[in-house]
Amino acid sequence: MSAEQTPSERKLAELIIESLNLEDLEPHEIEPEKQLFGGDYGLDSIDALELALAISKTYGVQLKADDEKNRHVFANLRALNDHIESLRAD
Amino acid sequence: MSYLPLMTRRLDDTVARHQGQPITAARFIAQAQALAGSLPGDGAVVNLCLDRYGFGLALAAALLARRTTLLPANRLPATIDDLLREHPDSVVISDQVIDGLSHCQIDIKGAVEVSDDADCMPQIPADLLAAIVFTSGSTGAASRVLKSWRTLHDSSLINAAEYGPGPELTYLVATVPPQHMWGLETTVLMPWFAAVVIVSGQPFFATDVLALIEQLPRPRALVSTPVHLRNLVESPQALVPIDRIYSATAPLSQTLAQRLESDCPGRVTEVYGCSEAGCLAWREPVREQEWQLFRGFTLTRIGPRFRIEADHLPEPVTLLDRLKLDQDGRFRLVGRDSDLVNIAGKRASLADLTQTLLDIDGVVDGIIFQPPESNDGRVARLAALVVAPGLSTGELRRALARRVDPAFMPRPLRLVEALPRADSGKLPRQSLERFYERVCETTG
Fold first, then answer.
1. Given this model, what pLDDT does residue B137 score?
2. CA distances from A26 to A21, A40, B49, B317, B371 (A)
3. Which of A16, A45, A58, A69 has the highest number of chain B CBs within 10 A, making it the mutation to test binding with B?
4. Which of A31, B33, B155, B415 could pair with B278 in a Cys bridge, judged by C-beta atoms 3.0 to 4.6 Å apart?
């Protein structure tokens, strides 16, 4: 797995920064496999809510947190991006 | 010694809905008794259950075992470690094993498997120290609020009478954690004293909340916060009927309340309180701006502050918010002491947070403060301006994230060459705000 962002991951990183007011962070600084919430980025559950709303508006998909598998999709940028892409493919 | 019942519900009343199944008071009590019997030693109980049903069971078990429940302000490993160091004989009850904790941890699942029913209502000593609620989210000395069983019991009866959904059995869904006072009083204790069935779990995204509510019989109610409610209203999905909507922890805008009342539709009630006194006033933001104090409470002005008193509170509580009292006893909230901030229901001192920042190696000067509000309905986050020549913002953020609850993580976090301090070394609010505005403009 690459530590480089793919183009779609970059786009999601930009959405994360914009929707969570993280202007002091550059999109490329969000490492694809680094823990997104509760870790070094200092993001909490309210950020997860804001982000889910931004994702639903931008990508037209609804995130759920109703089972163990879905908790994992918020683990890092890559997992979240993969999950959004799989929802869009349905 | 005087005693008060664990619940005022009947044994065959449904008090919860757990994993889709109705749970009677008798079953709940039997499960709590089993858990109480399995607790080692005689120390306090640190209740870290995330699931609302498990949390309620652990609280009831602690009461039955005559133990005090400790409720830390957050789940950061450093917070839990400190708490356990202070209370070395306590046991941790959790529904998810916490890594790296050497302490005795009890998994709640064993108790849930009990399928007996209790045949009488347990009585709890009124003066038992039922809970210690820790309120500070930052590193400074955590303030602790002591709750006797009498306080929790009586405030639950007052809450049920003042803002409870009424005599018809109501299903309650919540988006707030059970550990903090709002969630504790309304989603854990209210079902023990009012015709309410609490639905276990904590649905998170709008999709989850709506899906869970939709499968419940009516009347049904939602216990939430302005952040979660705005998220629900702005979500592209259609709302479902919700008969009562409760909001607390931050002011709910009238616009949002109106949208909820027209789109859900449901009656929106806002509740005001603090950890020290519990819930103490309510209003319906669509129809009024003034808060109505609960019966049994009295407000007294002491200088610029207000003191609240009630028979069930051990001592008077000085409110942190500034109030404007009307002649008819109603009041408006008009701001709060500037050092104390409340973000997403968590409280911290800006001075403590700034000290934490200054304690980081390489930080020469800095301040964490509340920037002017944007009023867009989002949670107002803190901002930080830091002088740290050898550090990057990334390194600073990492260092802070280890020490500070994410709710208080400053954003933006900006590195600057110097703060606009006056010759006296003071940082006047006006210069700080002007300087901050310029920094934001130049760095985008």
1. 40
2. 12, 14, 36, 45, 22
3. A45
4. B155
For residue A22, the model assigns a pLDDT of: 81
The CATH class for the domain spanning A7-89 reads: mainly alpha
Q: What integer is the mean pLDDT of B89-111? A: 81
Domain ranges of chain A: 7-89
Q: Does A56 touch chain B (CB under 8 A)?
A: yes
A81: closest CA of chain B, how far (Å): 17
Q: Is the pLDDT of residue B63 over 80?
A: yes
Residue in chain B closest to A49 (alpha carbons) equals B205
Report which of B329, B271, B334, B336 is spatially closest to residue B300, judged by C-alpha positions. Answer: B329
Q: Which two tokens stand for residue B254?
A: 């009238």
- Please list, residue by residue across B45-64, b when 16 or more beta carbons sit within 10 angstroms of its beta carbon and e when fewer do: bbbbbebbbbbbbbbbbbbb
Query: Is residue B199 scored above 60 in pLDDT?
Result: yes
pLDDT of residue A46: 83
Structural domains of chain B, ranges and CATH numbers in brackets: 3-336 (3.40.50.12780), 342-443 (3.30.300.30)
Residue to substitute from A25, A62, A72, A87, interface B, most B β-carbons within 10 A: A62
CB contact under 8 A, A38 and B406: yes
Judge contact between A40 and B401, C-beta under 8 A.
yes
pLDDT of residue B377: 64
Instruction: For residue B409, give how far its alpha carbon lies from the nearest alpha carbon of chain A (Å).
Output: 6
Distance from the B276 Cα atom to the nearest Cα atom in chain A, whole angstroms: 25
